């Protein structure tokens, strides 16, 4: 520095510059390695002080000294030196005038006059541009790349933000503590809510189909997001080591200091860090802290994923409402939904990780993004959220517009719209609940965008105002010395940030359905584990009562009968009104009624006395609802040990004792014997084992089942009515002469049952069986035990492309293929005990006659069109290719399945024309076909559309259609019917009789359903009494969902178009698919169990029938599982049904020598009879509605009542007591044996061989009279009846067997 710019003596007492230069030479090594950028300026200010108007040398600022020391002292320590005491920084001032480091080549000691005159404007950045990072915030490890950002172009490198002195933390820590606890409580609440939602949904997850399935994944996202906030809350008690660095990054010996500070309190740590290290803990930046990265990913990834899932929810809603897609078609796109929902957040999260744009959030104790970078916040938070909300709202609005149009049309036509409106309310309410919090979050982000820079200025000023504190005592504040008239600045508001965090977690609390939640809580109580009646009331409340009441409340114009009708139904048929015990249906119905205001509610309660009494009684019960629920849990805990012991003893009692007895049980299942044969084959050893088994049962502790565990819900009037029926002899079932053809009868219910015709050349798998054939067999058997005049017919579908294709493959004629596979079908169905009154074929003369007759009548009525069709022609094969001869890529842009057939895509389920396929190939020669025109015939479905719709609306009102069947049919009708081609260029089929088309055959979808009629005609010449008699005959049809359109739209159109008074389906049971271990059955890959292999598993046929019916996919796709099969066999059959039957028979055989004692009913006997009568009523109700799965569960529930009844009555003890106790024991056994007989009758449709075995053990001969199931429990077997020998019905399926079978049918590897 020139001599005329310095002043001496300097601060160290050197009076000459040469002396100063000599002393400064000791620091040349430090200057050469540039350990600190400000070292030279500091040394100059000390050794060669600048000349100024101030008398004497101007001292360096303390900040300048500290920065020089912090940069170089660590280097000096490595070589055994320390910072010179002469240069100790405490001796230098912290306020002007003092010497600072130069900026832009100038020496700054005070602000220029222009700067002093500049007013402090809100939103200006001039006061931030001259910001120099205080040494306390400096990060000397440049690899960490810390940056203090003000905006996209203004930032300070290697500078961090103080952990406890940034924005919110200037005043005190009390606000932070409040926010931490608040966010922690929200996180816990969100976790519990979402976990409860997920858990309750997973109880029966398959019930929740698209478009509502995304709600489950939304819950999952919010559950994981709440975990992150919970982690941050817990970290508060560990000194915030996630959001704040563990070490003092700005100190020289931060690591050593951290070790010495571990024993200090948080305040002492901060004070020690400032006083000794001259630095503070900084907020985490980047990806160095693993816990920080984890919480960031949980919050950001799953927060973005939840937004995408909400968009998908609105998309599926639009697809269902606007595009008329069915849930199975929407579900086919689920792979794309998952790809979008997980890929988009993944890409965005990876981008932020690469940018290392992760910041510690001291408020919540977690890490997030965009907290210190407005552009990152804008690009990765604000803009995506706005886009997702905008897209979702557009889809939502479009869907609602479409649904409102449909609703108006339905209202105009007089069609009920309750379910449609219920669906609209559910989707709309959920969307509002989700969108509103998201809009608030967006508003909070905009608030941060607008005010962030002003918060930084406020923060900077507060730092300078705190210069005299121990916290920040070395900050240079010259750059903010502004006039007193400057604009007032404020920091961020706690309330806004608390609002943001509130709504980031609150959405997770909105996903649980009320009815599902309440039902789950009550399922903890054993008495409500599988009550079909309660399920029906809950469904009625959701689908009928609640929408009607909400329309009344919201003043939507509607007919007064809209609410009066369900109220009358509840008042008249509400069996819940007289229940003594609180149920989940009570809670939901009571809560819905409570939505009415006092005046409305008082008016209706005065009108309907039954509702009034029930409502007031439940108002008292609900006051103690929480206590009741707690009592349920306490009782469950107290009795769990006893129950486990009882179950274990019952399992031991029902389990065969050795291999010999297992063989006996298996043999009894496979080959039922007569009573005489059983008696002759019984051996002494077997008798001894059964006696030992009975002794084990005798030792069961009667206290293991508490009295209040066995609760009956029938009133005294219902009990008396049931006892009157018990004392009346049941109606005897009329016998059927097997040599006579079944014909409709006057004055009785005539039921015609059909099963979808199986393709002749396909070996049926388990899904085919339960989808149609087995279900039809069970229902037909049920109709017979009900006394209905029933005809059950089925047969093989033998015409069409598939048969021709198979014949080409095997080198034989189509007829030979049909003959071969028809025999195989018959063998399979015989083994499965599927018995039709007639099992025929479609390749018959009757088929040709009837199909051509229907065609001519349609032609004469003007419903047949002629047109040219562009068709695929194979030049090499020299033939037009039928649909089954062509494969290619599905033309639907949403699907693009590469192996779609020429008539239908197996993936999306849409019907397509072969010429629409992308890159089609001939399945015969594998060449690419060309398109040529061919003349064909069409059924004019648009002309029949109104007729079909009117018939459908009447049929679903008067008959029983599954929801799947109704949904698919409605989708077809709403989309609009189109002409369908009914002819094909084939040789194997029913010939088209019209001149010019005689070289063609009828298309299989037109021809095959007519097979029901022709098969009946082959059974009886009087077939028209069944098929031209809709006044007397009720037609029930069973099929899987892929066959529904052909039976609900096309086949009825053909019959209606003939105007020939055909019997048309009035009850259609179309169910979903059965998958195999979460995959599809595949004969070619050996995946799954097919009909010709089931008998080789050594599992009795009745077990197969039982399990398939237990998992029948009545509402959604279900899955066959070997493990589940074994569990259901061992629990439901062995431990429940088999245990009760064997116990009752064994007790009777041992205690009363196999003879039924006299009956003297007491209160508990009467209650059991009433309860069984009630269950019988539910059984007949669900079976009449073709809900076969629920019917089976009713039977199992009855056997469960029987087991509890025996446990409470303890006949094995009372038979040794007084005469009255012996009579009571005798009554118990007689009632139990009658229940065993009833179960044998009810089981016959499901498990015919087991039913026969029970009857043999009851000594019911084949020619004994059978009784009609009439919905009442009668005394079928009178005192004095002699039973046969008791033999265990079922055997255990072991885990080793399960694993062996799973491997065997797992497919080709």
TrEMBL record:
The keyword Kinase does not apply. HAMAP family: Met_tRNA_synth_type1 (MF_00098). It is a multi-pass membrane protein. The chain crosses the membrane at residues 181-203, 215-238, 297-323, 381-404, 425-447. Pfam families: Anticodon_3 (PF19303), Frizzled (PF01534), Fz (PF01392), tRNA-synt_1g (PF09334). Its EC number is 6.1.1.10. It is found in: Cytoplasm; Membrane. One of its GO terms (cellular component) is membrane. Disulfide bonds join 65-89. Residues 662-676 have a biased composition (Polar residues). This is Methionine--tRNA ligase, cytoplasmic. Residues 636-645 have a biased composition (Basic and acidic residues). It catalyses: tRNA(Met) + L-methionine + ATP = L-methionyl-tRNA(Met) + AMP + diphosphate.
């Amino acid at each position: 520095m020139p001599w005329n710019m310095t002043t001496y003596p300097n601060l160290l007492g050197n009076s000459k510059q040469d002396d100063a230069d000599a002393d400064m030479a000791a620091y040349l090594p430090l200057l050469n390695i540039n350990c600190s950028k400000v070292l030279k300026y500091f040394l100059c200010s000390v050794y060669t002080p600048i000349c100024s108007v101030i008398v004497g040398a101007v001292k360096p600022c303390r900040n300048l000294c500290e920065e020089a020391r912090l940069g170089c002292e660590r280097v000096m320590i490595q070589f055994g030196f320390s910072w010179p005491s002469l240069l100790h920084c405490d001796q230098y001032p912290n306020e002007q005038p003092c010497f600072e480091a130069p900026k832009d080549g100038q020496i700054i000691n005070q602000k220029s006059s222009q700067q002093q005159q500049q007013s402090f404007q809100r939103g200006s950045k001039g006061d931030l541009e001259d910001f120099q990072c205080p040494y306390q915030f400096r990060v000397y490890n440049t690899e960490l790349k810390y940056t203090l950002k003000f905006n996209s172009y203004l930032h300070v490198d290697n500078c961090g933000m103080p952990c406890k002195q940034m924005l919110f933390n200037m005043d005190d820590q009390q606000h932070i503590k409040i926010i931490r606890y608040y966010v922690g409580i929200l996180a816990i609440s969100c976790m519990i809510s979402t976990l409860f939602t997920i858990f309750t949904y997973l109880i029966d997850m398959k019930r929740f189909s698209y478009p509502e399935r995304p709600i489950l994944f939304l819950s999952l996202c919010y559950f994981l997001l709440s975990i992150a906030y919970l982690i941050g809350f817990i970290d508060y008690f560990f000194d915030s080591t996630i959001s704040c660095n563990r070490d003092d990054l700005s100190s020289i010996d931060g690591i050593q200091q951290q070790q010495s500070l571990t024993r200090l309190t948080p305040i002492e740590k901060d004070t020690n860090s400032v006083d000794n290290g001259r630095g503070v803990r900084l907020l985490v930046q980047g990806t160095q802290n693993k816990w920080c990265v984890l919480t960031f990913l949980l919050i950001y990834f799953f927060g973005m994923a939840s937004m995408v899932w909400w968009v998908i929810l609105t998309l599926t809603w639009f697809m269902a409402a606007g595009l008329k897609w069915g849930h199975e078609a929407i579900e086919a796109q689920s792979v794309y939904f998952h790809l979008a929902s997980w890929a988009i957040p993944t890409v965005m999260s990876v981008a932020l990780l690469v940018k290392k744009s992760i910041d510690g959030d001291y408020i919540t104790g977690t890490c997030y993004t965009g907290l210190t970078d407005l552009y990152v916040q804008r690009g990765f938070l604000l803009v995506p959220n706005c886009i997702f909300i905008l897209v979702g709202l557009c889809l939502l609005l479009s869907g609602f517009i479409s649904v409102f149009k449909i609703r108006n049309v339905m209202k105009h036509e007089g069609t009920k719209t309750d379910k449609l409106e219920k669906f609209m309310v559910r989707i709309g309410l959920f969307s509002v609940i989700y969108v509103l919090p998201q809009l608030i979050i967006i508003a909070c982000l905009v608030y941060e965008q607008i005010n962030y820079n002003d918060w930084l200025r406020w923060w900077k000023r507060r730092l300078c105002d705190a210069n005299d504190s121990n916290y920040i005592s070395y900050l240079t504040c010259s750059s903010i010395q502004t006039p007193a008239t400057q604009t007032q600045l404020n920091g961020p508001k706690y309330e806004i940030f608390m609002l943001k965090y509130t709504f980031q977690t609150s959405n997770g609390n909105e996903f649980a359905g009320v009815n599902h939640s309440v039902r789950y809580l009550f399922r903890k109580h054993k008495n409500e584990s599988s009550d079909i009646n309660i399920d029906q009331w809950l469904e009625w409340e959701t689908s009928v009562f609640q929408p009607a009441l909400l329309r009344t409340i919201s003043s939507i114009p509607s007919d007064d009968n809209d609410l009066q009708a369900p109220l009358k139904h509840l008042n008249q048929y509400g069996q819940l009104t007289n229940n003594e015990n609180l149920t989940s249906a009570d809670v939901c119905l009571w809560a819905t009624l409570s939505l009415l205001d006092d005046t409305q509610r008082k008016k209706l309660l005065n009108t309907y006395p039954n509702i009034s009494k029930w409502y007031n009684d439940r108002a008292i019960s609900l006051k103690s609802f929480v206590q009741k629920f707690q009592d349920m849990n306490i009782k469950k805990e107290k009795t769990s040990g006893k129950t486990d012991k009882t179950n274990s003893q019952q399992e031991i009692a029902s389990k065969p004792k050795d291999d010999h007895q297992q063989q006996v049980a298996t043999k009894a299942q496979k080959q039922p014997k007569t009573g005489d044969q059983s008696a002759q084959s019984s051996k002494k050893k077997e008798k001894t084992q059964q006696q030992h088994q009975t002794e084990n049962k005798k030792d069961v502790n009667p206290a293991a089942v508490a009295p209040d565990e066995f609760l009956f819900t029938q009133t005294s009037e219902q009990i008396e009515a049931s006892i009157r029926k018990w004392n009346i002899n049941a109606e005897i079932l009329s016998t059927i002469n097997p040599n006579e053809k079944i014909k409709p009868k006057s004055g009785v219910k005539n039921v015609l049952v059909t099963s979808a015709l199986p393709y002749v050349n396909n070996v049926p798998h388990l899904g085919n069986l339960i989808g149609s054939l087995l279900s039809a067999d069970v229902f037909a058997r049920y109709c017979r035990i009900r006394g209905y005049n029933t005809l059950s017919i089925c047969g093989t579908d033998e015409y069409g492309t598939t048969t021709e294709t198979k014949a080409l493959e095997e080198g034989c004629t189509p007829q030979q293929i049909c003959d071969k596979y028809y025999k195989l079908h018959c063998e399979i169905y015989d083994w499965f005990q599927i018995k039709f009154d007639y099992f025929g074929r479609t390749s018959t003369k009757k088929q040709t006659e009837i199909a051509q007759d229907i065609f001519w009548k349609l032609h004469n009525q003007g419903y047949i069109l002629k047109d040219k069709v562009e068709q695929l022609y194979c030049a090499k094969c020299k033939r037009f290719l039928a649909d089954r001869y062509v494969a290619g890529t599905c033309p639907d842009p949403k699907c693009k399945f590469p192996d779609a057939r020429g008539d239908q895509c197996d993936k999306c389920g849409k019907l397509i024309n072969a010429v629409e396929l992308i890159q089609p190939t001939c399945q015969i020669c594998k060449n690419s076909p060309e398109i040529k025109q061919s003349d064909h015939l069409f059924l004019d479905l648009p002309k029949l559309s109104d007729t079909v719709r009117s018939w459908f609306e009447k049929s679903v009102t008067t008959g029983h259609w599954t929801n799947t069947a109704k949904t698919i049919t409605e989708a077809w009708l709403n989309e609009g019917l189109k002409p369908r081609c009914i002819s094909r260029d084939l040789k194997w089929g029913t010939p088209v009789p019209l001149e010019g088309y005689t070289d063609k055959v009828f298309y299989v979808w037109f021809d095959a359903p007519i097979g029901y009629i022709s098969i009946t005609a082959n059974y009886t010449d009087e077939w028209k009494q069944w098929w031209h008699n809709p006044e007397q005959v009720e037609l029930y049809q069973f099929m899987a969902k892929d066959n529904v359109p052909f039976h609900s739209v096309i086949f009825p159109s053909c019959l209606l178009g003939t105007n020939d008074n055909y019997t048309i389906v009035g009850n259609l049971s179309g169910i979903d698919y059965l998958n195999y271990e979460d995959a599809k059955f595949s004969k070619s890959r050996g995946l799954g169990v097919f009909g010709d292999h089931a008998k080789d598993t050594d599992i009795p046929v009745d077990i197969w029938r039982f399990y398939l019916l237990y998992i029948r996919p009545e509402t959604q796709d279900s899955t066959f599982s070997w493990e589940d099969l074994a569990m259901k066999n061992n629990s439901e059959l062995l431990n429940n049904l088999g245990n009760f039957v064997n116990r009752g028979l064994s007790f009777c055989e041992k205690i009363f020598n196999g003879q039924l004692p006299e009956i003297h009913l007491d209160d508990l006997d009467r209650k059991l009879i009433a309860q069984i009568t009630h269950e019988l009523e539910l059984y007949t109700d669900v079976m009449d509605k073709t809900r076969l799965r629920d019917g089976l569960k009713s039977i199992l529930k009855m056997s469960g009542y029987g087991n509890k009844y025996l446990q409470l009555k303890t006949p094995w003890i009372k038979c040794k007591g007084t005469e009255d106790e012996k009579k009571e024991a005798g009554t118990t056994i007689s009632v139990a044996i009658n229940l065993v007989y009833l179960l044998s009758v009810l089981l016959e449709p499901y498990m015919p061989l087991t039913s026969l075995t029970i009857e043999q053990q009851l000594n019911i001969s084949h020619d004994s009279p059978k009784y009609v199931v009439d919905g009442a429990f009668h005394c079928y077997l009178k005192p004095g009846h002699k039973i046969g020998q008791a033999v265990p019905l079922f055997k255990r399926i072991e885990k080793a067997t399960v694993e062996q079978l799973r491997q065997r049918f797992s497919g080709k590897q």
